Amino acid sequence: MSTQTSMTLTLDDRDEALLLFGSRDQHLRMIREALGIRLVARGDIVHIDGTEEQVDQAERVFQQLRQMLAKQGTLSLEDVRTVLAVVKTGGDRQGEENLAVIQPGRHVRPRTDGQARYVHAMRDNDLIMCIGPAGTGKTYLAVGMAVNMLRQSAVKRILLVRPAVEAGERLGFLPGDIAAKVNPYLRPLFDSLNDMLEPDQVKRYMENDIIEIVPLAYMRGRTLNHAVIILDEGQNTTIPQMKMFLTRMGNGSKIIVTGDVTQVDLPRQMRSGLLDAVNRLKDIERIAIVYLTEQDIVRHPLVQEIVRAYEDEKPRKKKE
């Protein structure tokens, strides 16, 4: 028999509570019914009663929703449904299923609730924008999704794309031919790909144009059907570049854009195409915008502390 327990959640203020609870407490009712818990809200205090597993799930649901609310400024019923689906799928926080098999016994899979939301969004939408700090698995999971879809014949091709501006250098000033010039920028994409497929298979796919790894500038004028197209480091696109890239989508294709908006390497006067796109496209159906946080970092545990230390330098809003 499961042990009964309870917890009390204190929100920041009444404004957060109103947005979190939803119109006429719709969100609270949905959470209560989905998890089978007793939920009582008074002002900015939430009391939760249920089994240990139910209360743990409720805590995770509220944590995810509060993170989403802080980033988006609002919550929809669909947001609540997605978070509930993610949290209820297995107590190990590993999401609905494996994405790609790297080798027997080793799989690509989400390892946090935030990553599971991301995978859920990639499955259910045609255009996905994922924003988060280094180490949250944005690109790795996107490549895993693409490899999985290719193996299942859901798409015919994978394109991995990157803008080549991270070092603040113009390609013309770099030594070597174009392959040598862009290779350092595309190396992280090669690394993800080589972790999921045998090197000979990657080589064969690339020779047959089943997998392409290209700089963003080479995407102009193309229309891509039945493909997964991943744009990495999307924060380093300009607005015209992002528009050009997003309009490459053809029939049966899926576009995934990843980026860290705290690491924009564009000239100071230029607005990031990723930030602009998130603002323009946030209310369009079949477009998902997913925010990951330092809690979704799955690299060395110190990376989470390093990200948090740099975040702490930013000025915070004063509470009234």
Strand order of the largest sheet: 8-7-9-10-6-11
End-to-end Cα distance, whole Å, is: 46 Å
SSE order: EHHEEHHEEHEHEHHEEHEHEH
The number of helices is: 11
Please give the share of residues in helix: 40-55%
Number of beta strands: 11
Uncertain residue ranges = 91-96, 316-320
Classification by helices and strands: alpha/beta
What would the principal axes of the Cα set say about the shape?
Answer: globular
Tell me the Rg in angstroms.
Answer: 21 Å
Global mean pLDDT: 83
Question: Percent of residues in beta strands?
Answer: 15-25%
Reported for the largest beta sheet, the result is: 6 strands, parallel
Word description of this protein:
With 320 residues, the chain is α/β, with parallel strands linked by helices. It contains 11 helices and 11 strands. The strands form 3 sheets. It has a 6-stranded parallel sheet with strand order 8-7-9-10-6-11, with helices on both faces. Strands 1-3-2 form a 3-stranded antiparallel sheet, covered by helices on one side. Strand 2 (38-42) and strand 3 form a beta hairpin. Helix 3 runs antiparallel to helix 4 (77-88) and helix 9 (239-246) packs across helix 10 (273-281). The model is unreliable at 91-96 and 316-320 (pLDDT under 50).
